[in-house]
Structure formats: structure tokens, C-alpha cells
Amino acid sequence: MLSSHLEPADARRVFPCWDEPAFKATFALTVTLPRQFLAVSNMPVAHEEPVTPDLKQVTFAATPKMSSYLFVLAAGELERLTAQADGVTVSVVTTTGKRAQGRFALDSAVDLLRTFNDYFGTRYPLPKLDLIAVPGGFGGAMENWGAITFFESRLLFDPAASADGARRGIFSILAHEMAHQWFGNLVTMGWWDNLWLNEGFATWMQVKAAEHLYPQWQSWLNGNEQKQNAMGLDARRTSHPIQQPVGNETEAMAVFDSITYSKGQALIRMLERYLGEDAFRSGIRRYMADHAYGSTTTADLWRALERASGKPVASVAAGFTEQAGVPLVVAQARCEGDQQHITMQQGRFTVRDPDAAPRRWQVPVAVGPLRALRPAETVLLTDEPKEIVAGPCGEPVKLNLGDIGYYRVEYDAATRAALAKSLALMSAADRVNLLADSWALVEAGRAEPAAYLQLVEEIGSDDSRAVWEQVIRTFTRLDHLARGRPERAALQAHARAKLRPAFDRLGWDSARADADDGALLRARLIRVLGELGDQEILAEARRRFDAFRQSPASLTPALRDPVTHLAGLTADRTTYDALIALARATTNTTERVRYYSAAASARDPALADATLALTLTDELPTSLVGSAINTVAASGEQADLAWAFVQKNFAALAARQGPSFSNNFVSNFMTNFSDTARAQELASFAPVHATSGSRIVAARAQEAIMIGADVKARVLPAIDDWIKRRGGRD
Ligand SMILES: [Zn+2]
């Protein structure tokens, strides 16, 4: 099959056009194709006729006015699964034989179309919506108007091969791309400097829609990592405002990052909470109605929200859109009589950037007691410190209640200690928020590592997946930085001792984990405990993988990812060959990715060499080549080997990939390292300086490496000491 992907600036490679989002036009497409091909474009087929015994001509209905980056053509030996929703024909389009796997996506698309027709107050404007599963070529999805393309494993669901939890990812990406049909396609940012309008909104709506249709998934809570990633990047010197000048198409590529997507998402969530759900939705409806088929800037959205809510939106939002950076709210409690007074003051939260310019925001701070004895209040924190009276002295009071705000909080020592002792009284979102802020303060040099490690000690028998995910992310980061250090074994032993009880409560097979998040937490714990060297887990994973090879039904879909991953990690040549054979034999993209990625995780250097050699052949889909090399460096812990290979073979690798690989792959790959010498090597690697966009990506990567080096030098020794002083009291 063939399938196009034109965002941001590749329409000009297909036809002559004013290839910038503000120039909207109608598109009338006629194509000549092999007769057995099914052709899909933005609009339905208007006319089709044979032109030779082998070829046919297909003419599509003309599109409404739209931007060139939203044009699409996909064609091949394809089939359809179809349903109707609110007068629109919705279909999943797959390669022959796979359409039954589109059922979950199709049902979800029908639900989402109705939900969005209602939410936006403007009906989906095209007569049809196709969801196209593309088996290779790219990794994500693209919101082409009326014909969204997806990497096959992001859209299709085969209950025999995929864990139940995989449906969450499918729903999420589908909701994101469908939200774009309005927010992005019907109303479009005028230029790439306002890309965040599209992506921040769609990333917010994907979670909002999941909370609406599948509340049991707790998508805000479980998706917390996205905001954490954005705040991590936004605290750095190389961060950028979510609204920033974009000079050309390579710089446009560089703004498709966590700041644009996830800071944008967090800001919209914070604003919705500040304005109220109903006022916010009225504003969105007005914005859609006023700008349909047109182009906008951020200011147009603020104007619509201000008119609907009567609150000052632009002045609050400007601090978050027009300047980079994360606010730090410093909270200080004191006792007067028997009343507790809390003073809040803002600063700028930075990591390894002592000369950062001071910044000011208007921060809506939700503050209150842990149990709803009194309702939380929202204080708009501006230039001046604010003081509030907050209950009796000593009562633990928390800021950023519900983890909805985009800022970090630093408490005085007594409040911090009181909160640590009260973890069990908090909502899961507040526990995650406290842990995440606590760790961020350590990386920023504002707190001792012991403060975070002590907080982890207080978690006890909490079984919230989101809470453990936060701890796992931190331990995994430390474990990566500790590679090659003699103290790594003690760090791993400590991490295992903290995580293993949570796994033992779930077990390998107990029914306790069959519902909701339990199965996902179990799979995650198996994976990470194996990576941290839990020999019992590794042995059991190998046993289950061998049984699976004899009888595939013996391994439930929910356990296939972690078990296969660990079998790959510890693979000998026989297991490695078996993984490659499984990858070659399957026609299911989810399985193919699983087997190749497990093989690439092998820690044996000879097997890492074998994987690297594969990336130069035709065996791997081009979209997997970069991730296979990264996996050799990351899970396989053969970063030096992989880097030597990339340097030697860069031209051959780049020749088979698009421009974004040449420009950006090496920069992103180098963040596997955390030492100054590698940052310098990256700085002197010529291809990453080829364009202004790639120079931006390289500078970000160099900073990430230097932050890793700093944490390694400053934080790891303190953690080693803390673990030693504890003397294995696990
Ligand atoms: Zn998007």
C-alpha cells in the first residue's frame, strides 16, 4: 500500500501549493491506480471507472476549504469495517484480513463522534471519517481531515495478542486525532508558532474524553507522567515558550515536543478548572462557530473564553504561553494563637540554570486540608506574597490539591514532614504530586535526596498504579545513571526491596489484578523488577517464555510484553534467534514490535551487534530502525557499542530514512549518555548542525546529558550513603 503524511511541510513535495497552514484551499483529486486497490482520501469517492484491464481512475469529491498539510491519499489492497454515527459514515480501513481487529476503534469512534458533536456545538462537517491502519512507515498517527492515518498497532486490537490495557492507548490516540477534526482542521492555527493551540487542546481532549466515556481508567491520574515530563524540560535553559517564533519547516519539526503537547494540555486543564467546565465549553463553542474554515491565533481563543466566562483569561494564560519556565510556589506555615497562617510566594523553578532570569506568573493555587473538612480554596498568586488562614496549627495543608496546576511547590520543613506522615489521607493524585515535586526539588538541588527516599518509605501498602509509576520512574532514572558504578548493586537491591512487596500483593496469576489498573501495574512491576536484577522474576519470566513457545495460549496477553522483554534481556543465542523468528513469522504489528524490541534488549554484546547489523538490512520497517538502536543502548545497556555503530554507519542509516532522522536521531540517541565527553562529541557531530531546527534539538540533548552528569555527581553519592546508613533494613 501507499500512504501519505504531509505535516508540517511536505505537501509541496506532492503538488505545487502555498504550503502554509493559513492558506486554505479546496482539493479535487483524481488518481489512477491498480484495479484491485482501495483508495482513500479526505472525501468520499465520487466516481470510479476502469481505464485499462489493470488500471482504474478514481475521482474524489472536492474537499471544503482546508490547509495543505491535511491532504491525504492512502491506497492498497485494503478492506473496510463500517458504522454510522450522527449521519456520518465511519470506517476502519485495514490491509486485507485484518478488519475484524478494527472493532474496538470503530465503536470508540462512533462514541467519540457523538461526544464531540455535542461538546463543540458544531457538527463534524464531512460526510465520512476513515481511520486507516498503516502497517509501517511511521510511529504515531496523523489527523488528515476525514481520513486519519495510524501506525497499525495504535489502531487495531486483537484480544488474542494484546493486553486489555492496550485499548486505553488506542482510545487515547483516536480521541486526540478526532478532536483535531474540529480543533486544528476546521479551525487552524495561522502558523506553526501557534501549534500548541492544536496539540495542547487535542492532548487535553484525549484525556477529557476518556474521563467521560471510561472514568474507571482514571486517565488524568494515570497520565500524570506527561505533565511531569513537560515540567522537567520546561525547567531547563533550552526550554521555550509554548508560543514561539518558527522561522522555517525544520524549526516547525522541533516544536512537536513535550512542551507543546503536554504543557499545553496542563495549561488548558488548569484554565478549565479556573473558569469552570460550563463556561469553558461555552467559550470553545463560540470559538468554533466564529472561526470555522478559518485560521486563528492564541488571542482568538482567549477572547472567546473571556467573553464566555467574564474572567481575565489572557493575563493569566500569557505567563504560561509567552514565556518559558515553571513557577515555584514556596509555602511557609506559622502559628498565631491556635490558627495556622500560610504564606505563599512565587519564584522560578529551574534545574542547573543558576543565571536564569526571574519570571512572574499569575498562578491559580488550589490549597486546603487533606480531608474535605473545609473546601479547598483557589488563590490567584501574583507578584506579592499572599497569606491565608488555614485551620488549626499543625494540620497538614497541601497546595496544588488534585495535581491540576502547572507549578512546583516547596514547603517548609515542618509542613513537609506533616504531609509525609499523612500520605494515606491524600487522594492518589495528591500522593503522586507530592512525590513528583519532592523528586524534582532533589534534581534541582533544592532538597536532599533523603527527603524523597523518606517519603517513599511512607508509601506502605499503597496499591495505586500512578503512585508506583512515579517511584519506578525515579528508581529507573537513578539505575540508568548508576551504570558502571560499583554502588549500583546496592541501589538496585534497595529499589527491589521497595517494589517487590507491591508485586507480591498482586502475584503472577491471582485474579486480584484482573480488573482495571491491577493488571497494568503487575506487568509494569514484572518488567522493572527484572530490569533491576530480581533473579526470581527473571527465572520465572524465562520459564513462562519457554512454555509460551511450546504453547502460545499458556501466556495471557497481559503478560506477553513483560515476559518477552525479560526473556530478551537475558537472551542467549538460542532465545535471541527464537525472538527474531517469531518477529518474522507474525503479521501482527504489535507482536512484531514486541519481538524485535525484546531481541534488541539483549544485554549480551554479541547479540547487540547482531541487532545493530539488522538495522542496515531490509528486515526492519524503517520506523523501527531508530528505536531498535535506542533499545540496544537503553534496555540492552550497550550504549558505547551502539554509538560506535551509529558513527560508522550514519550515512547508510540516514540514506534509508526521512530528513528528520538525519537531523534529529543522533541528538535524541545521545541522551542515553550522561557524561561531559559525550555532550562534547554530540556538539562536534556535524549532521546535527545541518538546519536551524536540528541545532535546537542538539542543544536540548546536550543540556539533558549535562543534567544527567550533574545528578550522577551530586545525587548518587548521597543516595549511596543513605542506603549504606540504613544498613539493609528492608
Ligand atoms: Zn495532534
Largest beta sheet: strand ordering:
7-8-9-11-10
Helix content: 40-55%
Proportion in β-strands: 5-15%
Radius of gyration: 26 Å
The total strand number stands at 20
Give the oligomeric state of the chains in this entry, treating copies of one chain as homo and distinct chains as hetero. Answer: single chain
Question: How many helices does DSSP assign?
Answer: 26
Low-confidence stretches: none
3D architecture notes:
- The chain has 730 residues and is α+β, with helices and mostly antiparallel strands.
- A 5-stranded mixed sheet has the order 7-8-9-11-10, with helices on one face.
- A hairpin with a 2-residue loop joins strand 14 and strand 15 (339-349).
- It is globular, with a radius of gyration of 26 Å.
- The termini are far apart.
- The structure holds zinc ion (ZN).
- Zinc ion (ZN) is lined by residues 143, 176, 180, 199, 202.
- Residues 143, 176, 180, 199, 202 line the site of zinc ion (ZN).
Note the topology:
Elements: E1 2-3, E2 30-34, E3 38-41, E4 45-50, E5 55-60, E6 73-76, E7 78-85, E8 88-95, H1 103-120, E9 128-134, E10 141-142, E11 147-151, H2 166-182, E12 188-189, H3 195-213, H4 219-222, H5 224-234, H6 249-254, H7 258-275, H8 277-291, E13 295-296, H9 298-309, H10 314-321, E14 326-336, E15 339-349, E16 363-369, E17 377-381, E18 386-392, E19 397-399, E20 408-411, H11 413-420, H12 428-443, H13 449-457, H14 465-481, H15 488-506, H16 516-531, H17 535-550, H18 557-569, H19 573-585, H20 589-600, H21 605-614, H22 622-633, H23 639-655, H24 659-670, H25 676-683, H26 692-726
Parallel strand pairs: 8-9, 9-11, 12-13, 14-20
Antiparallel strand pairs: 1-6, 2-5, 3-6, 4-5, 7-8, 10-11, 14-15, 15-18, 16-17, 16-19
Helix pairs in contact: 1-2, 2-3, 3-7, 5-7, 7-8, 8-9, 12-13, 12-14, 14-15, 14-16, 15-16, 16-18, 17-18, 18-20, 19-20, 20-22, 22-23, 23-24, 24-26, 25-26
Bound molecules: zinc ion (ZN).
